[in-house]
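note to self — DONT lose this again. spent like an hour looking for the file last time. sequence + predicted structure for the chain T wanted, 324 res
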Amino acid sequence: MGITTRILGTEDADALAALMTRIEDDHPTGFCLGAGEVRELMEGKADNVFEGAFDGDELVAYTALLPGQPDDIELRIMLFGDVDPARLGEGIGTLMLGRSLDRARAIRYAVAPELRASVAATALAGRDDQTDLVVGAGMRPRRHSFLMVADLDRRAAVELPAGYSVTAFDPEAADELRRAHNAAFAGYPDRPDAGSDFWAMFVVGAAHARHALSAVARDGRGSVAGYVLAHEYAVTPSGGPGPEVHVPYVGTLPGHRRRGLASGLLAEVMRRASAAGYVTASLHVDAANPTGALGLYERAGFRQVYRQDSYVLEVPRVGERLSR
């Protein structure tokens, strides 16, 4: 029987989570979800698209397209996917990647035909098969990021810079923090995808959010000055036994930088996590982060576990040709 493909729904969440686990046991992906997390992503945004490749009734590969919120420049679409390690070398990855890129183009034309689009995927450093696959599909290398992990034993209280008050994440102030997040990352090479729908799904209401462990700093006027958010996923990103707190965002508003606020908030989140029984913390960092975040995390005790390289396919506006 040949390979068949179809869109995946919530009824496929258990099978997809099991496939992701088999893949993660073979190599780190940065996108290994539990069944509940799969269902959240499928239900949280109607334009998220999961597709599976089947051999009979067995799910042997998947892709996930997660479109962002269009801005005045482009529509950014994240692409994840992989193949069961037992089925590598059969052309299934090539089939699924091609289908996903075609669907990403269709999403762009349906959602924002007047804008450019960028489709971003990652390949694990050292996996030439993954690199050859995305490059062969016309995707170009951009930057790379590290998954970093730190031990949390005996984390002591830290003294934060004077003039700031620190609280946990308050869902009632979620949109204020979203706007602060956009301002904190506005000058970065990849602008943040923090539309209200995404923020509500990924940050505010997600089962993986750990609001009590998060830390938000406000200045004397009560405005958000910086923040460190905390999550906990069904599968630890580092591959360790856990429990592991994951730090998805560390942000400082431009007027409050170079005062030690980010390092102090990160240390506070790590202290809270240690007191709550977590044994490790993990995070991803873009090696090209213009604020020197890599050094900040190394000073906080984080070490590199693996590297992922980013590849992007640029989809021009209608009638536009991209320069080579």
